[in-house]
Amino acid sequence: MDLSYTEEEQRFRAELRAHLEASVPRTEPPEDFDAEFLWMLEFQRRMHGGNWVGIHWPKQYGGRDATPMQQAIFAEEMARARAPQIVNRVAINNVGPTLMHFGTEEQKKRYLPGMLSGDEIWCQLYSEPGAGSDLASLRTRAELDGDDYVVTGQKVWTSYAQHARWAILLARTDPDARQHRGISYLIVDMQAPGIELRPLRQMTGASEFNEVFMDAVRVPRANLIGAANEGWRIAQVTLAHERGTNYAIKEQVLARINVDELLAQAQQTGRASERNVRQRLAQLYLETEIMRFMNLEMLTRVARGETPGAETSIVKTFWADLSQAIGDAGVEILGEQGLLLRGSPHAVGAGRFAQHLLFSRAATIAGGTSEIQRNIIAQRMLGLPRS
Mind listing the pLDDT tens digit for each residue in 181-228? Predict the structure, then answer.
């Protein structure tokens, strides 16, 4: 495992840190979800102006050909600066790399440029009410009719669907094939007739997620990615990018920042002298360090040209549990004020820990549930039989 940085990597960090200093908003995000979306989009455009969006993309597509270590530095500095998320991250982290691998030249020329700039927002139509963790049992169907696929079905937990221009869709194109076969990977115009959106209000108060209903939506055959009925294999590439190491690196840095802030709050209130509080904070500190070394080990493998496999499931599961543990500890140590959300004049840390507690419930679900991740670890790493 390599823990050192080269001079070039240190220069990269300094250049990025200077750009973030000039680009990160000085104001708290708006409480209204749509206003917050525009706030994040404006930040993405400022970052794009300095060529700091999609740095892992090849230069020919507008990226920087960033090395794995540079990508890790980017994730660290974004977290340290408390920068907003890149709002078009589904496109940049998931769809773009998948299109580069499986898309035609016409598809790449049409769709890739608008991703980095944020001119065209993307969403991901994967999960269904009856096929969330068991994605391969999806029921949305796409039937070929001349030069179009006719799509009918329902998707759920679709982030930013109300702002998306395009979506990637998994749909069943061969109902007679075995479960993991007969699925195709399509690009859907979110403004096409037959699409209905229903925002889902979360317990945080935001409506990031949506239900998406499709009734005889026509999708041009030219929007098929890869070969028909090969969508499951392509989707695994997309999911691998979603669970990638750099996301985990950013989350580890944020976790460490949250633990440090929680320690400072405990010291201010005098609770840091309590034995149980000290032990709990020490445990959280140790777990953030464990995650850091897990990420560094994975990053070293990527830098050597190795492809991470089932090991990413370990990192994802560990992070999900740690994220929830920090949220639980935050509101318990801070007491009643720790339960107040953003907007309350008495909220501690602008309501960050209460918000973290509520949103962290999704950590063990999003990107593949912890149950699914543990099955992957058991079967692919430990050689255990299917449960």
Answer: 899 999 999 999 999 999 998 887 788 899 999 999 999 999 999 999
Structural domains of the chain, with CATH: 7-87 (no CATH), 122-228 (2.40.110.10), 243-381 (1.20.140.10)
pLDDT tens string 91-130 = 998 899 999 999 999 999 999 999 999 999 999 999 999 8
Catalytic residues: 242
Distance CA 163, CA 34 (A): 9
Mention every residue, 6+ apart, whose C-beta is less than 8 A from residue 244: 93, 312
Residues 6+ apart with CB under 8 A from 282: none
Whole-model pTM: value is 0.85
Contact partners, residue 165, CB within 8 Å, separation at least 6: 114, 120, 121, 122, 189, 190, 191
Q: Which residues contact 362 (CB under 8 A, 6 or more apart)?
A: none
> pLDDT-derived band of residue 144, with 50, 70 and 90 as boundaries?
very high
